[in-house]
Amino acid sequence: MGLIRNFFQKIGLIFSDIKLAHSVFALPFALLSAFLAKKGIPSPRELLWILLAMVSARSGAMAWNRLLDAKIDADNPRTAGRAMPSGKLRKAELILFIIITYGLFMFAAFKLNRLCFYLSPAAIAWISFYSLTKRFTRLSHFILGMSLGLAPMGAWLAVDPRLQFPIILAPAFISAAVLLWVAGFDILYSFQDLEVDQKQNLHSIPRFLGIKKSLWLTRALHLASLALLLGPYFFLHLGPVYLAGLAVIAGLLVYEHSLVKPGDLSRLNLAFFNMNGYISITFFIFGATDILVRR
Asked: What homologous superfamily is domain 7-293 in, according to CATH?
């Protein structure tokens, strides 16, 4: 019983450390992409394997990030309490978790279709590559954005692997929107590590632009992201409910940016965690409703 209890404690510790709840950021975009590809509700089988693929890929990538960044995290007061730098987890335990989650991702891709399975190693390579990038390029925010942006395209291909043009542009626009949206809020999130990035010679955009200019860049990225979400409306001839969802998202983005000011970062976590979760869920609810009411 002690071994079993210790096993579940370790798993719970890892899931807490990698912020499993943050799967909500990209998952609703992926699910709506699957709904759009299906022109309705995907089958329970498709939903099961898509969910497993999305959660396992993100979990493996986040665990890989924690493994590679253990020394960096240890020198950062904000992250020194994480499982690896604090000694609560051993390197071997995290490596085993990464192998299992990436294996689950490839298995889920195999169960979906041949194209997804063939693409799964490239997806793993890209989402793992992100963890290295802050060491040498300030574009790391965009590489993270693309890592999450793979989810909508992957979910579409899981349901419809035919690559029909121009319909395939619909998930491509969603993926591009997620790329810019995630890059924008990752820039916001990195404000709290500005001094640490300078000390450790890590390459974040706020380190080079400063907070004020980075805020303007983030606003531009989020505006462009919102514009890209119009793509599915035109390519798939969606209806007014979808547009209403984009209007709500626009309001949420305005509110999110009102929370963060150059001289006041006290509400940064509210802007990052809460608002971005609301935005992704709003996109799914309004998009899925638009599809279902017009069937």
From this structure: UbiA prenyltransferase (1.10.357.140)
